[in-house]
Structure prediction request, 398 residues.
Amino acid sequence: MSQTGNRASDQLLVDRVKAGDKHAFDLLVLKYQHRIIKLIMRYVKDPSEAMDVSQEAFLKAYRAIPKFRGESAFYTWMYRIAINTAKNHLVAARRRPLDHAAEISEPEEFEWHAGLQESDSPEGKAMGEELRETVERTIVELPDELRTAIVLREIDGLSYEQIAQVMECPVGTVRSRIFRAREALDRNIRPIMDAG
Amino acid sequence: MEKDVTRNIEEQLSAFLDGELPEEELQLLVRRLERDQEYRATLARYAAIGSALRRDPVQVTGDDLRQRLMMAMRDDSSGSQNSDVSGTPVSSRKRGLLAAALAVLVVAGLYTGNFFNDEQLSFDAQQPTELARIAPVDASSSPANLSDLPARSARVPADFQRAVLQPERMTSYLVSHGEFSRSFQGAIVDSRIFVQQASYGE
Prediction:
């Protein structure tokens, strides 16, 4: 359900972009920027450089979106553009990809590999340290059912339906629990984000 | 009451981020997000929470990337029209490829002294009418050497030769259709430039 839902949801945004709505593209960026930056950092180690390459990748996607026919999911398409952009960037800079970038050809494969290795960039670690600490501190204080729901969604990547099966509750309850978890976390991270 | 509405919308934002929002709610929410900066900021924070939980290497704590991107999109005069993933306008690219092919042909001809050297294309109007006539090989009457074989011949009408193979006309054609080289900024003197530029792509 999650995959189909995401796809339908993204396609609606893509259709709006095609109709000239730039804000719809902003929503796609907002939704996927973390994953795209993380992907690009497999190739480009420096965080600020990775941000530049991410911007370039999104801009290429924006320009090419009239040709996106929806035969694949938007993220799969965006993922390929991001990899090509990162590789081209390295070629232009006459550098080899990072060793661990290796040959990860599919988004699913990347998701699996991504959990195995973390960037050793000090800038990358410093950038979100406060935010990460706050999230980790807050999540242990959440009621069990909220913590389990958000962890199954964000870390394990389960759909609402799958979470409902695991937690033996209706899908609507899962949606509500995940939201309440985010709401609680948001209260604590908001000052950090607003200051940034 | 207003707080309930806000919470309801924030719950929709949460489901939207997970790709779990039903179609009917999705349409309304996307329209709302277009005009409400505050809800966009909330969505960005929800996305950052997920990124922090997954321990992503870079934490996006602001909207710097999105702002830069929106500015670039605004500045991008070609917008979403007529471009491919490499960012090169499609029509220019097609014309560029044609120009590159023609340029290679011209420069190759110039390097060798003239177009379609007579030795390479030795069409002879006096030869028989068949385009290709090869004598049947008979084992019992195999010639002692190759020179004894009947000549392989080709015949092209004389007017075809005049129309296609005259270098003056080719040059004239290129000069009069010089607009094809515009995307290369008139750099028609060096075919290597064309080849490099035309081969760039995603």
